[in-house]
Amino acid sequence: MTGPGGWSRFNIVSIVLGFAFLYLPIVLLIIYSFNESRLVTVWGGFSTKWYGELFRNRGLMDAAWVTLRVAFLSATAATVLGTLAAIALTRYTRFRGRILFSGMVFAPLVMPEVITGLSLLLLFVAIGLDRGFLTVTLAHITFTMCFVAVVVQSRLLSFDRSLEEAAMDLGATPAGTFFQVTLPVIAPAVVSGWMLAFTLSLDDLVIASFTSGPGATTLPMKIYSQVRLGVTPEINAACTLMIAVVATVVLIASVLNKRREVQRQRDEQAARRG
Amino acid sequence: MNRALSAVLGRLVIIVPYLWLLVFFLVPFVIVFKISLSQTAIAMPPYTPVLGFGDGLPAFWERLWELSFENYVWLTQDALYFNAYVSSVVIAAVSTVLSLLVAYPIAYGMARAPASMRPTLLMLVILPFWTSFLIRVYAWIGILKPEGLLNQFLLWLGVIDQPLLILNTHTAIFIGIVYSYLPFMVLPLYATLEKMDNSLIEAAQDLGCTPLGAFWKVTFPLSLPGVVAGCMLVFIPAVGEFVIPDLLGGSQTLMIGRTLWNEFFSNRDWPVSSAVAVILLLLLIVPIMIFQFAQARAQEQGR
Amino acid sequence: MKSLGSIRRSFAPWNDPTAKPYILFDGVTKRFGDFTAVDDLSLAIHEREFFALLGASGCGKSTLLRMLAGFEEPTAGRILLDGQDLRGIPPYRRPVNMMFQSYALFPHMTVEKNIAFGLKQEGMPAADIAKRVAEMLALTKLEPFARRKPHQLSGGQRQRVALARSLAKRPKVLLLDEPLGALDKKLREETQFELVDLQYELGLTFVVVTHDQEEAMTMADRIAIMDKGHICQVATPAEIYEAPSSRFVASFVGNVNMFEGRIVSRRGGTAEIAGPDGLSIRTDNAGEAAEGADVAFAIRPEKIRVSSQRPAETGFNAIEGEIFDLGYLGDMTVYHVRLADGRIVKASALNAARTSTDPLTWHDRAWISFAPDAGVVLTR
């Protein structure tokens, strides 16, 4: 018998089924990207020819390049803005319009993309900004900064304020305290905020479709327009590459994290032995 | 650095993101509302009047009278829109309940897993979220098609002798939404369940509750904040979902996100799509407020 | 026969060979993987007893309690309650209730609802529940807080809610896991006596787990000292303190001076112990130790007298040394006396009078002395 805290058979089964549900479609997609046959669901032998096709497809390659640039720029700007917003929310508990501010930070998390996309487009039209690379980037900064803010904020909430107080007690100015103490401590959250913003931007179809213009077609837009015409192995290959890129980044991050953790434990043990 | 400069920097921490969100989040809504009161025109931008102060106040005043609620009247007259709203809410609600049913056992199992395994399990839940949403929805097309992998598998098993029609039905949309939004449901549930003191469940059993009774009387009520947060995180975006109904739902599925998209891109009717957006937003105000309230409370308790 | 300690007991069923134990651990072993938390342990607890399990963290005392409550099943052995084997009975069907160390109050329920929780599970009629809850609220002086939620209560109030909740079902046995651990010192001392009174009034059997020896000594009829999954000694507080069965028990409970040596001569209960550096101690409590045995002589600081002159009594043990350190605590003074061989002996003197006729200070020459029956000989 397992106690109430036990890791029972029911728990294991529900986790295994849950993860199967989460990963099976992705695994199948990857497998079928190596399919010889043009028919996506009929296995015709192993082949990497669709990857070759993919790299010869200029339209897709251009879109990928645009997407990467948008994602990089918007994630970086969103990280700065989102971190500032998180600090404002956790460190300044009282200022005029704080409720409106926190509302504006949290609402975009759940706001249907069609509304965000439409409203941003109408703004750009109203201020006479030509739709293109710049407008997509601005739109992506706006909706991803809120995700960054939430990630960083949760880290700041569990942050030991006495660290900052100690720094100020030792003569650091508030700004000095932020750069020398606060930022290094919350750095992991800021980095994962950046990564989240990057992938959200990489991923976005709806907002980009509204705010982008000629010459700034992003990869999801390109994929979407092809998918509507039917499933093609080439898209499977493109998706596999995107998954590979993301998986590699996440893997490297977690390995680095793990290594640092192991090193820290080793240091602590060494310290205890004296 | 002197004190005054520090104070200015301190203000900037608030002012910069505040202004950004005002300009790129709040002001756009005002514009959407304004345009929803305009008329369609064959021009660029395709609506009239273009409200602005450039021509002086009297002109502005005059044009204000040209604004009308005609677009909203139009929305109420055509049953298409009403049905789209209703079916969006119903589909989102059903999907939310299904997500909760799928996610709760997973989150519960994770929270009961040995502490050393939990970070890995958490990572595995988040990981699909880092891969493209579009790709993950797209992957289901290949699975659900009549000649797709699911039907091939079921035919091979001999469970069915005719391919099931799943793609282009509501079932496909439910599967798509549950699948895509699952991490959003699992994570808040896991957060509340993991925090829960195990001795509470032991105390309930000690006082005579069966394990199932203890779950319903203690575990579940205490996980309600997570349930609410998870349901809102799934329900609100699902109401306005575009990609999933478009790719998995087929042409006859009516959802408001898709209606808005078609009004905008196919009919180029900006004022009507703005009106659709305004109504959608009003519809979602209450759930969004609930979500905000839940967030604020979680934050208070985190302190 | 002289009684150990100053308390005369009339309730002592453990001395009655015909008394039937109420709770019986019979050769109980509990393993978690490779770790053995409880190792082939047998123990009998009697009805209406206030029994304490005392030990350092990780000694297996909580595991023992959790096996009684039903949260863990023994790997081997059996547990009997009132003659009934508890094996396989889930916690929710056992006639015992537990007061948790964290209190485990349900945060989403009021004080009333918390107390009523167990009664509702029994299917008791609502009117009876209300009556019992009112009774428990009165018993724990919680009436003004009935409608409050746990987070609106102070630490002491929460402790009383936890107590009321676990008592509401009138369990045969109440299990208390570090019941006073979360309270501050003053409140803890008051509550100790309240718990004892409550237990006596209700006539229940209490089993309490604690790492605080003062708590165990104050409250319990008997104490079991545990270490590494074994029971070292089961006895009344006075016996544990004055007649510890081993070096471990002697040093675990209270302060003690321990002199290692060998029995060089023995006549009746009286023996001569010789230690290194010419140390010689005469004791009347030789116990089982045979001549030639290696033993430890244990003596409590308050049994040792410190004086500037060699005491005049004949037959007393007296050793000369130097005051190395002293601490004035108000009610008493603690001396650390360094003997010729460098060993430090702790002694304490009650400050019964406001002024002292024989004041000692740092670096004074001083004699420590004690009667031949003041210490005990330990063979284990």
Description:
The complex is a heterotrimer of chains A (274), B (303) and C (380). By secondary structure, chain A is mainly alpha-helical. Chain A contains eleven helices and no strands. Chain B has one domain: MetI-like fold (Orthogonal Bundle). Helix content of chain B is 77%, strand content 1%. In chain B, helix 5 packs antiparallel against helix 8. In chain B, 47% of the residues are buried. Chain C is of the alpha+beta class. Chain C is built from eight helices and 20 strands. In chain C, helix 3 crosses helix 4. The longest helix of chain C is centred in the middle third of the chain and has 18 residues. The chains are: A mainly alpha (274), B mainly alpha (303), C alpha+beta (380). Chains in contact: A-B, A-C, B-C. The interface between A and C is small, with 3 and 4 residues.
Briefly characterize the structure.
The complex is a heterotrimer of chains A (274), B (303) and C (380). By secondary structure, chain B is an all-alpha fold.
Itemize the secondary structure elements and their pairings.
The complex is a heterotrimer of chains A (274), B (303) and C (380).
Chain A: H1 9-32, H2 49-56, H3 58-91, H4 98-110, H5 113-126, H6 133-157, H7 161-169, H8 174-203, H9 206-211, H10 219-227, H11 233-273
Helix pairs in contact in A: 2-11, 3-6, 3-8, 3-10, 4-6, 6-8, 7-8
Chain B: H1 3-36, E1 39-40, E2 47-48, H2 57-66, H3 70-77, H4 79-112, H5 118-130, H6 133-144, H7 149-157, H8 170-195, H9 198-206, H10 211-222, H11 224-239, H12 243-248, H13 256-265, H14 270-302
Antiparallel strand pairs in B: 1-2
Helix pairs in contact in B: 1-14, 3-14, 4-8, 4-11, 5-8, 6-8, 8-11, 9-10, 11-14, 13-14
Chain C: E1 23-32, E2 35-45, E3 50-54, H1 61-69, E4 76-81, E5 84-85, E6 96-99, H2 111-122, H3 126-139, H4 155-167, E7 173-177, H5 185-202, E8 205-210, H6 213-219, E9 222-227, E10 230-235, H7 237-242, H8 247-252, E11 257-267, E12 270-274, E13 280-283, E14 294-299, E15 305-307, E16 317-328, E17 332-339, E18 344-350, E19 365-370, E20 376-378
Parallel strand pairs in C: 3-8, 3-9, 6-7, 7-8
Antiparallel strand pairs in C: 1-2, 1-4, 4-5, 9-10, 11-12, 11-14, 12-13, 14-20, 15-19, 16-17, 16-19, 17-18
Helix pairs in contact in C: 2-3, 2-4, 3-4
